[in-house]
UniProtKB/TrEMBL annotation:
The keyword Methyltransferase does not apply. It holds the Pfam family Oxidored_q6. It comes from the Bacteria. The keyword Metal-binding applies. PANTHER family: COENZYME F420-REDUCING HYDROGENASE, GAMMA SUBUNIT (PTHR42845), HYDROGENASE SMALL SUBUNIT (PTHR42845:SF1). SUPFAM superfamilies: HydA/Nqo6-like. Residues 16-162 form the NADH:ubiquinone oxidoreductase-like 20kDa subunit domain. Its cofactor is [3Fe-4S] cluster. This is NAD-reducing hydrogenase small subunit. Keywords: 3Fe-4S, Iron, Iron-sulfur, Metal-binding, Oxidoreductase. It comes from Nitrosomonas marina.
């Protein structure tokens, strides 16, 4: 009987997709994993809804109401949820706006900033509401593991995932624990 494949879902909240690119740097080893894993919701599959999965990988912090919705959807569907990269764990570069009032940020970008030719702050019901600050994912839902780095290396992704294929807890080597 064929072995059940581990189902993995991934998403980028307030991130730059650099962590996803680093994940793809696994290169040909991804093909070796091919018969052990399958992707659920992910930019790699373009599936839009997260259904029950073994592992969820979250890139990026939480900056708007849609990020909160997606993160809760992942928590509800993923047995193990992993915060991937500095933005998910600390808010990262997007959280630099936390030093300023949100209104001040919007006015600087859309009204008063260099090169603004048509000053207006976007306001459309289709746009997700911005939160007052950018939050680390663990401040919104419970997170099971943290994979630091900006971005984490491809080897770090492998060290995180391969033990879980056999139901083991992941152990990151010390040289994969970096915060830059
Ligand atoms: Fe991009 Fe770095 Fe944030 Fe990953 S941690 S989303 S690579 S800025």
């Amino acid at each position: 009987m064929a072995e059940r494949k581990l189902k993995i879902a991934t998403t980028s909240l307030a991130g730059c997709f650099g962590c996803h690119m680093s994940f793809l740097d696994i290169d040909e080893k991804l093909m070796l994993l091919n018969d052990r894993i399958e992707f659920n919701r992910s930019p790699l599959t373009d599936i839009k809804q997260c259904s029950p999965s073994d592992i969820g990988l979250i890139e990026g912090g939480v900056c708007n109401a849609d990020n909160v919705r997606v993160l809760r959807e992942f928590r509800a569907n993923c047995t193990i949820l992993i915060a991937v990269g500095a933005c998910a764990i600390t808010g990262g570069v997007p959280a630099m706006r936390n030093y300023f009032d949100l209104r001040e940020c919007l006015e600087e970008v859309y009204l008063n900033g260099t090169g603004v030719t048509n000053p207006q702050i976007p306001s459309d019901t289709e746009l997700p509401l911005l939160l007052d600050k950018v939050y680390p994912v663990q401040e919104v839902v419970k997170i099971d593991y943290f994979l630091p780095g900006c971005p984490p290396s491809a080897d770090a992704f492998l060290q995180l995932l391969v033990p879980q294929l056999d139901g083991q807890k992941p152990q990151l080597a010390a040289d994969q624990l970096h915060y830059d």
